[in-house]
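Appendix B, example 12.
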Amino acid sequence: GDGAPAKCSIAFNDRIVHISSSANVTLKHLTIQNGRASGSDGGGVYVYTSSGDPGTVALLEDVLITGNSSNDDGGGVGVYRAVVTIANSTISNNTADDATDTAYGGGVYVSSESGSTLIILNSTISGNTADTKAAAFTTAPRLRSPTARSAATRP
């Protein structure tokens, strides 16, 4: 093709990508937009490892994650007991909004569960909204972000 990223968009209430069951997945050159997680994390991408499984690993490289939402945590990306690397990517204009509780991480949410790790390299997280911690939120012990740029908004 012309080198433009593929677009992945969905028009009903569901997230775009769900990675689980000890998978090792690379997503490259994609636009992930208009996902909606209802009652769970990660409107655009959710990376999850079940209890007792070996770890799930995901690399998101040269990916635009935009216009996604969750009525729980992680409007753009949700990470639960998994290792996720985001490289050369943009996470923007995603929303985490919970009408009955506090939603965290409009751009990215990383759970505090053991095994949750987020690595951000040369990426931008901006223009995301959430009840609190709009750009990215984690209580995980392992967050490495040597080259991330972040700008958060709160309605």
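Residues 141-155 have pLDDT under 50 and may be disordered. Residues 69 and 75 are 4 Å apart (CA to CA).
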